[in-house]
## 1
Amino acid sequence: MDILENLGQVRERIYAAAHRAGRNPGDIKLVAVTKTVPVDAIKEAVACGITCLGENRAQEFLGKYSLLPSNLEWHFIGRLQTNKVKKIVGKVSLIHSLDRWSLARVLHRASCEAGIVTRVLVQVNVAGEEAKSGLSPAEVKDFVEEAGRLTGLHVCGLMTIAPWCEDPEQTRPVFRQLRKLALRLKLESLSMGMSGDFEVALEEGANIIRLGTALFRQRNLSSPAHDRVCKR
Ligand SMILES: *Cc1c(COP(=O)(O)O)cnc(C)c1O
């Protein structure tokens, strides 16, 4: 794996997309998605300058969290079971995947017990795909208002996973819609864009992008991570 080279190319692409959109690349947070990536490769990424990691399973996150330096920033990006909440609250700096009221309540309670406020993004299923979690765009306003009353939570913004498309240009309307929604609700953080579509997401206002394959793919082998993406 050539993480340094991958990271260099990713940074160039982020800068170019930010430039096209007249944005400051410094405003864009790169979350390195480390699901299925072994700890040694994560350490290599950290040595290359990666500081923010994203995991989508509580068990895998906890294992890696205990093995890696404590100065790293962790984001939780997957469907979170309520019975795992206590274990991860206080260890992650942002949860991207608040997708239901029962989870909001459990997160609120666990955060209050721990004496902290947990930062969250509300996950929106913009394209209405059955296999994906997230609120429908029409539900977001009420949900954000209600969740805003829970003192253990700070709703910072919205997150979406766009449908997989061969041509990333086709995902543009999804990103545009999420941005509009966030603007209307005066929410600043917009987590959108993955390896296949992050440039379009950046042009549409993403300020958090979540990249796995683009950073951790192996160049000389057929890419299992890519197969995973296509089956989504
Ligand atoms: C796996 C995953 C990513 C990263 O996907 P890549 O296409 O490998 O960049 C981003 N967001 C979520 C929620 C994921 O589960």
## 2
Amino acid sequence: MRAGEEMLVPEHQNCRQSWRWRGGRATTSAVLGLALLVFSGVMFLRFTSPSQDGALNSSDPVLVDLTLVKNAKEKGALCLDGTLPGYHFLKGFDSGADNWLIHLEGGGWCHDLESCNARKYTVYGSSSRMERQVPFTGILSNLPSYNPDFFNWNKVKIRYCDGASFSGDVEETEQNGTTLYFRGERIWKAVMEELLLNGLATAKKALLTGCSAGGLATYIHCDDFKALLPNAETVKCMADGGFFLDVKDISGKSSMHDFYSDVVHLQDVGKMFPNCISRMDAAKCFFPEEITKSISTPVFILNSAYDAWQVKNVLAPGYSDPSNLWASCKLDIKKCNPIQIKILEGFRAALLDDISDVKTKKDWGIFVDSCFVHCQSLRNITWHSPYYQRINNKTIAESTGDWYFDRREVKEIDGPYPCNPTCVNDGF
Ligand SMILES: *[C@@H]1O[C@H](CO)[C@@H](O)[C@H](O)[C@H]1NC(C)=O
Ligand SMILES: *[C@@H]1O[C@H](CO)[C@@H](O)[C@H](O)[C@H]1NC(C)=O
Ligand SMILES: *[C@@H]1O[C@H](CO)[C@@H](O)[C@H](O)[C@H]1NC(C)=O
Ligand SMILES: *[C@@H]1O[C@H](CO)[C@@H](O)[C@H](O)[C@H]1NC(C)=O
């Protein structure tokens, strides 16, 4: 089993930065032992309960109804197609009754009239298409075994239907003969106003979170969120898979920058960053590298250094790879050749460089693993499982809780791939 050995045994010198067992033969065999233990755990699970990888409790997740925002029409806070925006609300209980966790849904962006128009006919552009109920899993779970610190909080999942990370605002709705509402910023405000009236205003503790395009929105709205809750004891933000990098793709083009430039101009997102756009181009201001510089509220950065979505869409988008050399690597990191792995390591280095200032901020948290995945807080297997997705033997749920409740300073940075034997590398 040479391939298996290579996958599980840390080879890089740098692996040590992620595993606290340092030096000597005993520690090496401890790592090896854990790796084998994890490996047999994986095999055991695969063979015994294929449908519930990593489950700590076999209960089904709770299904939560969609609520449409009442006064949204008067406020002009509408989805791309002009329908009302919506959210799913699950009431808190016991010690969590006065605490609120708000999750901003992700789902990419649209960057021109054609792609925004197509989006009107999907759940990401119209509440008429949205599921009436969604399961609450991972950080949204109401079960303590899946979600130890936040299970009993009030929880809200805000649906994403504006195409620009809850940040666009254009008055005009007729765009070259197409009707489109670019109103993400108004949706953010309208949902917050409704939640404030329904109990958020008296929250003791609050956490704004979100994944992917919702993770980017979390960075963008973090200080706004804090400002809405002047009487709360603790307000913090956790952005999952939202640290998009302004790097060149494999053909040398700044394709993500160009894409963001389109999004920002189409939906007039620059208004969100008045200080930034006076210093640099508006597209640059839409990257977390810049946004985080001006956030004063404590933030937890949860991101894979090998973010599967970014590898597919930022680093090696289709047109940057006309001969399809990256096709299998993009789907399965185990199929990447050594040159591709080197390029992925460069991507990782760019992320670590962008967050280097954050490492010195005492009240900020970091969990940067090297697992080939995208959103990690919404799936029970990546959020809190006895086997997977750990750094220093702490799950993402434990690390987020430790940071939120000030139980320890959390600055977890994994060694490079394939150091971490607990990784789920399934690309989702
Ligand atoms: C699963 O969680 C529920 C709710 O917390 C609990 O009542 C039940 O006993 C748990 N089941 C197992 C098998 O742990
Ligand atoms: C945990 O995740 C598995 C796989 O996605 C899913 O089948 C199961 O319903 C989830 N359980 C809970 C309680 O979220
Ligand atoms: C609308 O059409 C004009 C003229 O064809 C074009 O210059 C402009 O870029 C279009 N606007 C958008 C947002 O596509
Ligand atoms: C890792 O943590 C689990 C509890 O989550 C514990 O049972 C296990 O012994 C720990 N392993 C190591 C190597 O510390």
